[in-house]
Amino acid sequence: MINNFNLDDYALWTALVTPFDQQGNVDYDTLTTLVSEQEAAQNGILLLGSTGEGLALTLKEQQAIVEHVCQLKPSVPLMVAVGGSNLAQQKEWVSYCNQLPIHSYLLGSPLYAKPGAVGQTHWYESLLNESAHPCMLYNVPGRSGVSIPVQTIENLQAHPKLWALKEASGNITQFEAYRQAAPNLALYSGDDALMPYFAQAGAKGLVSVAANAWPKQTHEFVKRSLSGQHPNLFAQWTRAINSLFTVANPIPVKVLMHQQGRLSSPLLRPPLTHLELTQTDCITTANDTILSWH
Q1: Which domain covers residue 37, as residue numbers?
Q2: Catalytic member of 166, 188, 204, 254
Q3: How far apart are CA 248 and CA 267, in angstroms?
Q4: Which of 8, 122, 139, 283 is within CB 3.0–4.6 Å of 148 for a Cys-Cys bond?
Q5: Measured between alpha carbons, how far is 122 from 109 in angstroms, rounded to an integer?
Q6: Is residue 166 flagged as an active site residue?
Q7: Cα distance between residue 171 and residue 194, in whole Å
Q8: pLDDT at residue 294 above 70?
Q9: CA distance 86 to 84
Q10: Tally of structural domains, the chain
């Protein structure tokens, strides 16, 4: 139990978008509403991940966002992303967030450098040692440029602060290798569309992009995936979810949320731009499909 939350009770964590106003500033009023929506759906909340454009924000903005959400005192747990390539800076960030009423960290692989098993073990161990809360490691080679070696997971699996792993390589074989290397580690899918498959392979839950647009429906999707009693889930959801990844995340989901009237602006921080999405029919159709899903 961490601050009265058992993290294992939350099978769905929403990688929350960061809303901006027409001038490109963080829209805190909308952020408050988005947190309330996730709270109502009983989804855990991840702040400042890649979906939240965390690395495009200034340190002051990052701090202000986490502090703002903490002051809301949501009835669901809060996870904060830790990402970059400077270990000293990431340790400082963890130390800062340790002082706030959060409940977990998402620890990303160091960017660009592409370290091997020894370097990644040192990276993660340093952050785990700094953390006051349980941590979820994040395997996302499409963004970091390198996978977390299985050896690194084996090296760290007994660490008292290591709670979970988000697997977002899209490779079920990689997922299985991690599961065998650390059978007591909670594994979460980092790919919305693959959740039914990962559930069959032993996943505990999902860290989701789609839950931004469809909080309650995605919660039900995860629940049904984990039950194993709905064989048509993949066919029902895959086209809708894939529409959110036709260009770089989180462009489509922010455009969709703007269409839904839930974001005042579809703006993103450079180098991402909503102008990248030139065809929006697919997300409009997806929205109609999911909102009528039952």
Answers
A1: 7-230
A2: 166
A3: 14
A4: 139
A5: 11
A6: yes
A7: 9
A8: no
A9: 6
A10: 1
Q: Is residue 293 part of a domain?
A: no
Model confidence pLDDT, tens digit, residues 172-183: 899 999 999 999
Euclidean distance between CA atoms 64 and 67, whole angstroms:
5
Evaluate whether residue 144 is within a structural domain.
yes
Catalytic residue among 10, 105, 124, 138: 138
Q: Is 138 a catalytic residue?
A: yes
Residue of 27, 87, 8 whose CA lies nearest to 267? 27
- 85: amino acid identity, one letter: S
Beta strands 104-108 and 186-189 are unpaired
Q: Is residue 35 part of a domain?
A: yes
Average pLDDT over all residues of the chain: 94
**Could you tell me which of 165, 159, 195, 162 has the C-alpha nearest to residue 179?**
165
Show the 3-state SS of 68-93. HHHHHCCCCCEEEEECCCCHHHHHHH
Binding-site positions for pyruvate: 51, 207
Q: How far apart are the first and last CA of the chain?
A: 33
Q: What is the identity of the amino acid at 187? A: L
* Predicted pLDDT of residue 2: 44
Q: Tell me the pLDDT tens digit for each residue of 213-259.
A: 999 999 999 999 999 877 676 777 888 999 999 999 999 999 999 99
d(Cα 183, Cα 140) in Å, to the nearest integer?
20
CATH code, domain carrying 181:
3.20.20.70
Known binding-site residues equal 51, 207
Q: 0.90 exceeded by the pTM?
A: yes
Q: Is residue 271 part of a domain?
A: no
